[in-house]
Specification:
ten-stranded mixed beta sheet; about 20% helix; globular; alpha+beta; 6 helices
Length: about 300
């Protein structure tokens, strides 16, 4: 992992806690093992102040994980020799983490597919991008390294179109619009994100939205990701005062529906096939738990 400091003045360990998911204790451990280089030098102290333009290189210590194939039910909506499209269910983690090494999409992919790409982390075979555990919908799976690199490049160059549908709190006044902010890691909880002030170290996030239907106290919204930041739609929805219904972290504390997580569904994705170069679009229906809430809202109209 490589970082270029854009706005200096902070201690190295504090700067890294804001820019990565590492804790200060983990950063100290990496420093002690000469796994963090500052401008190519080892032996740097955690309290050293970083300056704008400094280059930081981090060699992460990989946790030994025995990723096993598991016969878990997954919805494969398309498959060929190069890729597969999965309709991920709400509640399934994409890959191991936090001590949970089983029950993930990664475990299921190892069971269902003979070939998967090996690009990147060994705990994420074939996984080109991710969805939050409680976000459902379409996901790309690469079956070889060439396909993986092609799809990753398309995502990086923003030529992949990703369309989401969410039910949000309150009634949006505008029929459509753009949400453009900076997003950075939360200063209160490193596992969450927040809108930043654009100090040079934060990443720009752009989301377009379109109202699909208004209810008395909620709005069904289509979101189109222009960028792909962590928790982007959820953070942007909260930012405009209309958090996603059921969101346990960015949503309202009091929820009127009994839900297992946010009503956010990755409905459609458009890619260029890595071998044929043909444009392909894959679309999924809203899951049953999402439709059930919409049915209740329609009945109450």
């Amino acid at each position: 992992m490589k970082l270029t400091v854009r706005d200096g003045g902070e201690r190295l360990d504090i700067y890294l806690t804001k820019e990565t998911e590492l804790t200060r204790s983990q950063i100290k451990q990496l420093l002690d093992k000469d796994k963090i280089l500052l401008n190519g030098e080892v032996g740097v102290k955690s309290g050293k102040a970083v300056k704008a333009g400094d280059e930081i290189e981090i060699e992460l210590i990989q946790e030994e994980i025995d990723l096993i194939p598991q016969n878990l039910k997954i919805n494969i909506i398309y498959e060929d020799d190069d890729l597969a499209i999965i309709n991920k269910a709400q509640g399934m983690s994409v890959h191991p983490g936090g001590g949970a090494n089983t029950g993930t999409l990664a475990n299921a992919l190892l069971y269902h597919f003979q070939n998967l790409s090996s690009v990147g982390d060994i705990t994420r075979p074939g996984i080109v991008h991710r969805l939050d555990k409680d976000t459902s919908g379409v996901m790309l799976v690469a079956k070889n390294d060439k396909a993986h690199l092609s799809l990753s490049k398309q995502i990086a160059e923003r030529t992949v179109e990703k369309i989401y549908v969410a039910l949000v709190e309150g009634v949006l006044k505008s029929d459509s619009g753009e949400i453009k902010t900076f997003i950075t890691r939360s200063t209160k909880n490193r596992k969450l994100m927040m809108v930043g002030c654009g100090n040079g170290t934060e990443r720009e996030a752009i989301t377009n939205f379109k109202v699909l239907k208004r209810f008395e106290q909620n709005t069904l919204v289509e979101f189109k990701l222009i960028t792909g930041r962590t928790h982007q739609i959820r953070v942007h929805s909260k930012h405009i005062g209309h958090p996603v219904v059921g969101d346990p972290h960015y949503g309202f504390k009091k929820q009127k529906f009994s839900l297992m997580g946010q009503l956010l569904h990755a409905k459609k994705i458009t890619i260029t096939h890595p071998k044929t170069n043909k444009q392909m679009t894959f679309e999924t229906d809203l899951p049953e738990h999402f439709e059930n809430v919409l049915s209740v809202l329609k009945e109450n109209e």
